[in-house]
Amino acid sequence: MDIIFEQVLFYFYENPIWQLVWIIAFIVHIFASFIKNEKKFLIFFAFVSFVWWLHYHLMWYLSGAFVNYFEIFATLFVFRYKKNLKVFLFFCFSYFVIWYFTIDWSEYFTIIPIFNAIITSYLSFFHTWFKLRIWICLTFIVRIVYSVSSHSIWWVTSDVVLFISWAIWAIKIKKEEILLKKKVDN
After folding, report:
1. Cα-atom radius of gyration of the chain, to the nearest Å?
2. How many Cβ atoms sit within 10 Å of the Cβ of residue 118?
3. What DSSP designation does 99 have?
4. 134 CB-near residues (< 8 Å, 6+ apart)
5. What are phi and psi for residue 166, nearest 5 degrees?
6. Mean pLDDT score across all residues of the chain
7. What pTM value is reported for the model?
């Protein structure tokens, strides 16, 4: 346990701003999973993308920074252009351009954040509440694979915790839908 604590202190001393922004992004992302209103959720999710953008920008992880920058706009565009294939394809094209210019050819897992961004944008544009949450839970599984490939215990930990929080709320939303349907049927 002392070794883990020493590593935490080492990374905080190395660059406390990165770590502080990571903690803020992690906490904000957890809170986003608890929002019940779809419009508030999308606004909060855009804010989550902003905080992750800041984190990746500070770390000079260009693909993560650019992807999260475009996710801010993709999430906000959902309000006006829900189910608009052209707008969705624009963001997909943007993600592939980002990937092309920021790819680390020695690390094939760098494509995972791009696919996650495309999947998340697709879900936001074409699915609603429960399906959106369930599929986002599944994208966390892919994120966990990416985190493991990057050998980051902090990313693995945060992605596992985020997966659990999103799964809990997806299950809770489904139970509420079932109860509401039973009330309507009776």
Report:
1. 17
2. 19
3. H
4. 170
5. -70, -40
6. 78
7. 0.73
